[in-house]
Amino acid sequence: MTTTPAFRASGLASGLDTTNIVNELVKIESRTIDLARRQQDAFKSQLSALGDVISKLSSLRSAASGLGTSGVLAVRASGTNSGFTASPTSSAATGRYSIQVDMLAQAARARSQAFTGNASAPVRGGTLDLSIDGTTTSVTLDDGMTLAQAAERINRSGAAVSATVLETNGQAFLSITRRDTGFVVGQPASSALQITETSTGSLGQALGATVIQSAVNAQLTVDGLPFERRSNVVADVVPGTTLSLTRQTTTPEDLVLATNTSETQTALKRFVDAYNDVMKLVRNNLAIGEQTDRTRTLGGDPSLRGLQSALQGLVVGQANPGSPVRTLADIGVRTQNDGTLSIDASRLEKAIATDAGAVNALFQTATTGIAAATTSLVERYTSGSSSILELRKSGIDRSIRTMDSRIESLQLRVDAYRERLVRQFTAMERVVGQFKSIGDFLTSREKQGTQE
């Protein structure tokens, strides 16, 4: 911002400290600018505080959404099993299961005839038809292309296979492997991978690829019931639990799934901590003491008071009506004197023992669940330009821009005032100087007359 330089006449004629007089008068006139800048800084402090609240609300929504998606219950698989590993989710059905891995899934594999040399051996031109689960992809083989080039052509064809060249004892082979294990249940194993080659070239030798390993589906027995799946990763047999089959077994092994209260509390604590972060920030902003500068804080802000009330309603509201676990208090989440939450581990353990599924439902129930209610609350306050806190931010932004214009206008007025003072004091010094010159002349004439 450009300002008029300080006045430097220095009272050469009048003997007055006119520079200081002008600067002090301008300082008095500039008080309105200083006041406007303090007001603008106060608005910026309010804007920063709102940004902090919005950020904490976003973290709260993420914590609630995580429990809404994955549930709050922590289910652990106990015991050591040689044929599989188990990864239960929060929705896993706790209990004991007897599991035997009768067969591991394998992918279909094909291999070409032997080529003398290495991956540079030439391949006879033609067409290679790859049938995967009844869908055929045709691959054109250029006459004389190398084995390595043929493998690359197959990999780029879009067929669900991978091709590579294997070299051993001075010979090279083109290996083609189905990317997925198993085959469509109810179809023949041969449907997983079929190869038909049509040779039309004359250079090199034909691939002569044949299936050397048929596809095999995984087979397992759970509580005496047989299951067949295409993959060794089975997620739809034991409810809420993914089984990763690792080896074939000859006898059943027990899988025990049990709820872990300590880990459940840890998962729940992530939501409680995020809630407490928001509530503490809101309370701190609303707190008004004797030394509080209300212009720089959100003390008394109605939007924050509304948010505080909405957060409290989230805790006491019935998230799952008709269930034995209806509110956060039913799983041991209690409100403390300062409005923050704490977890009663014994109450949580009792709720899990009473109805573990209802504990998850508290967060996962559509519309009324804690996750849905939290998301709705946060969106109402922060999502989109018409949300409550975003509207408040827009209002403060406008005030800041208005203060920019006001400060610029006030500065122009102060600059004009300084220039006027400079002109006036310069004129005064000129007049005083003229009178002083006349006085000096008269004094000189009077001295001359006396001497005569």
CATH domain topology of the largest domain: f41 fragment of flagellin, N-terminal domain
Q: Give the end-to-end Cα distance, rounded to a whole number of Å.
A: 64 Å
- Number of domains in the coordinates? 3
Strand order of the largest sheet: 1-16-3-12-13
CATH class of the largest domain: Mainly Alpha
Radius of gyration, in Å, reads 42 Å
Q: Care to count the β-strands?
A: 18
Biggest beta sheet summary: 5 strands, antiparallel
Named at the architecture level, the CATH assignment of the largest domain is Up-down Bundle
Q: What is the chain-wise order of helices and strands?
A: HHEEEEEEEHEEEEEEEEEHHEEHHH
Shape: elongated
Query: What share of residues are in beta strands?
Result: 15-25%
Q: Helix amount, in percent?
A: 40-55%
Mean pLDDT value: 88
What structural class is derived from the secondary structure elements?
A: alpha+beta
The number of helical elements comes to: 8
Uncertain stretches of 5 or more adjacent residues: 1-9
